[in-house]
Amino acid sequence: MSRKFLDIESPGWVTDGLISEAQRQQLLARYPQQAPALGLLPILGSVLVGLSGLSVVAANWQGLPAALRLALLLGSLVGSYAAGSYFLRRGNPDLGHGLIGLGLILFGASIILTSQLYQLVGYDASGLLAWVIAGGALSYVYGSRLLVLLTVLIGAAVQTYCVESLGIFSYVTAWLVVGGMGYYWWRRPDTVSATVLAVGLLWQAGLFIIVQHSKITWFFVPAMLIYAAGDWQPNRAGGRALQVPSLVAAYLFMFGLAIFGEADAYANILRPPLLPYLGALAAVLAVSVAGKRARGRLATLPEWLLLLPGFYLSGGLSLAVATLVVLYAHAGSVLARANRDHDPEQLTIGAVLFVAATAVAYFKLTWGFMDKSLFFLLGGVLLLALSWYLRRRNAQVLAAAAPPVAQQAGTPPLPAAASEASEPTPNS
Question: Where in the numbering of this chain does the DUF2157 domain appear (predicted)?
Fold first, then answer.
């Protein structure tokens, strides 16, 4: 909650009797005014001056003596770290971490330029591994989400270079990201860091599948292993943030299968050997279920519906119907869980998923033989009914939550006689 929001809204809360003036002052004291950060214009000016200097150096790089080039690289690297430490000591973590991150980028650039300067030709990623190690170390030392993001991106870039240029998969790079950043996330389950880490790990998994020339559906074994790790995380928000990218990938795959899979044109790239694939997926499912049971999250088990291997079915109507049933079942599970938990955000997501499944169903199953006006009529009625239901449910949730909120805000509870008089009679 921001202080600006409280300054604007809290007087109205006092007027409406939601809180008292004393409680308003307590809220304001709880969220004090933030110290003014360093002005944006000086930062932008410094960046432009730095870019100007870099442009001059880049334009004349080849003509500079080797000793001067090396001095420029070391000077910019040390200068970035020193400036970052200075601003951190002055209480400006955003700018400080930004400069530390710039130093990390310059460290990688120095490795590459030094190799070119002394014509050190390498056929492995051993030099770039130091870049990943440095990023992981800085992330632990400073505890910065920016540095975590940069380290994951650096790991992805190094792995991409290995796959594209060297034709190999660097297991060391993968384990540095999985082990180093994974342990960081486990100890500090920040939602932003979890999402960035999950995306980076999915990228690593995708590159591994490419190098192994495996069926692309093998991608979902490591993807759901990432999801299962989120089930074991004690912090619910941090674990959920790690799971979302894997769920998005699984949903998009099932959605694409519902649209394009009926022609059976993708069998050669979608169908791995049945028993090994199902065995690996079942093992990951067991890990996930154990984590859900340990953390009390078995209600999210229907999310595994998206991993049902419907691509083993032959193309045509059977595959289209099977994938649509899965999409509807998944959307229904999201709506049911949102209603139970009174979660408006999940209600919105469930409604969107339901509408998406309905659109695919109409266009795939009814467009060819149903009159177009009837198609739009049924679709509109269905969406209006869903909208009415969600609004009604939301009103019930708000009505149920209103009395406790009012009592917590200092409003005295109604007497028993008054509350009974306020209740409508069955004939009213």
Answer: 13-147
| pLDDT tens-place string over residues 84-124 | 898 888 888 878 888 888 888 888 888 877 777 776 655 56
23, 409 contact by CB (below 8 A):
yes
Quick one: how far is CA 73 from the chain centroid?
35
Reported as a pLDDT band with limits 50, 70 and 90, residue 26 is confident
pLDDT digits (tens, 9 = 90+) for 185-197: 998 888 888 999 9
In contact, 377 and 365? CB cutoff 8 Å: no
Name, in order, each residue with C-beta under 8 angstroms of 75's C-beta and a sequence gap of 6 or more: none
Q: Which residues contact 252 (CB under 8 A, 6 or more apart)?
A: none
The structure's pTM equals 0.74
Query: Considering Cα of 78, then 81, then 85, then 87, what sign does the dihedral take?
Result: positive
Measured distance CA(231)–CA(285) in Å, rounded: 11
For 10, 164, 186, 399, the CA distances from 404, given in Å and listed in that order, are 19, 59, 35, 10
SS (H, E, C) the chain: CCHHHHHHHHHHHHHCCCCCHHHHHHHHHHCCCCCCCCCHHHHHHHHHHHHHHHHHHHHCCCCCCHHHHHHHHHHHHHHHHHHHHHHHHCCCHHHHHHHHHHHHHHHHHHHHHHHHHCCCCCCCCHHHHHHHHHHHHHHHHHCCHHHHHHHHHHHHHHHHHHHHHHCCCCHHHHHHHHHHHHHHHHHCCCHHHHHHHHHHHHHHHHHHHHHHCCCHHHHHHHHHHHHHHHHHCCCHHHHHHHHHHHHHHHHHHHHHHHHHHHHCCCHHHHCCCHHHHHHHHHHHHHHHHHHHHHHCCHHHHHHHHHHCCHHHCCCCHHHHHHHHHHHHHHHHHHHHHHHHHCCHHHHHHHHHHHHHHHHHHHHHHHCCCCCHHHHHHHHHHHHHHHHHHHHHHHHHHHHHHHHHHHHHCCCCCCCHHHHHHHCCCCCC
- Residue 105 neighbours by CB under 8 Å, 6+ apart: 150
